[in-house]
Amino acid sequence: MRELKLKRGKEESLDRFHPWVFSGALTHMPDDLDEGTVVRVISSDGRMMGHGHFQIGSIAVRMLTFDETPVDEAFYADRLLHAWQLRVALGLRRPDNNAMRLVHGEGDFLPGLVVDLYGDTAVVQAHSPGMHFAREIIARALVALPDAGIRNVYYKSETTLPYKARLDPVNDYLIGSADTDIALENGLKFHVDWLRGQKTGFFVDQRDNRSLLQHYAAGRRVLNMFCYTGGFSVYAMRGGAQLVHSVDSSAKAVALTDENIALNFGDDARHASFAEDAFKYLDGAADGAYDLVVLDPPAFAKHRSALRNALRGYQRLNAAGMRKIASGGILFTFSCSQAVSREQFRLAVFSAAAQTGRRVRILHQLTQPADHPVNIYHPEGEYLKGLVLYVE
């Protein structure tokens, strides 16, 4: 096994079990080492630091172990079993709920791997070459998980792997072939398009926040911006909303939202959908037209270089949303941009409130759910920020 040596003084982060080794921390970046290879990382004085997947880029090694444990089939089986046991302990596998995140990368000590579970189908995404090469091992371990009931494993990594690696991944079933795309979340049914949809087909990270919105929906006029598959809209309908308007720039997303509304409520006249740009729709809506507004946009800043423009975007969006809320209304607002800190997002929202002159109070501060755990040694894993605001 190849060894990569750290520069003097660069051992500190690994001594704290941080799972990333940056290229600048290595004495040299080998040009004859294939991406995805398991390597041994050693300190400047020869101390064993652990094993990880090598790749070209600023993150040169994603650490899998911090000891001599070999990275083999037994390793993946053990890590996946512990991930599954956590979800069982969280009570997420129930007759009324079979949609969850089973593996959340560094949060489950499997950096570079995401697995979402929809019924008996696991959707696997590799974010590193090492996990791409381990996909068959991972698939076998998934279907072997006790009492998980996984029969199908779909691999979806065409857009998540670094393009420079030239891996040419193909989205396809590794095991089985699903005969239904319907998953259950808290008793509600959703079509999950893992074949062509965004990410793994559904945003399970908003499950708890959707339940909270249901609590506030009764009798309210609800606007769900960036609706995608209509998760917040479906919960608002079940919560007894007076009306629900779902908006997304993608006509395909709007069609999927309509399907999910029909799947749960049939032809319910309370719901209407609009395929339109978010800012254009908000500009055209009357001030005070809604009692509850959801702003859940895609990431405005995928890299720190885009941070300044992203914060301006969040301020502009939240100001526009606040203007559409009647006095005594509720705003659910989110950022899924990892590059945007909780404090920066809050400041952008506060600036929007000041810009509109509304009196605003914080009711809840939201984050990702427990099946998206944050490795205590990797705080970067906390990406979802949300506020529930009472707007006078």
CATH architecture of the largest domain: 3-Layer(aba) Sandwich
What is the arithmetic mean of pLDDT?
Answer: 95
Helix content: 25-40%
Biggest sheet descriptor: 7 strands, mixed
Helical segment count: 10
User: Which word captures the global form?
Assistant: globular
Label the structural class: alpha/beta
Low-confidence stretches: none
Full CATH superfamily name of the largest domain: Vaccinia Virus protein VP39
In what range is the share of β-strand residues? 25-35%
- Structurally, the number of domains stands at 3
Number of beta strands:
19
The strands making up the biggest β-sheet line up spatially as 15-14-13-16-17-19-18
Which CATH first-tier class of the largest domain would you pick? Alpha Beta
The CATH topology of the largest domain is given as Rossmann fold
Gap between N and C termini: 63 Å
Order of helices and strands: EHEEEEHEEEHHEEEEHEHEHEHEHEHEE
Tell me the radius of gyration: 22 Å
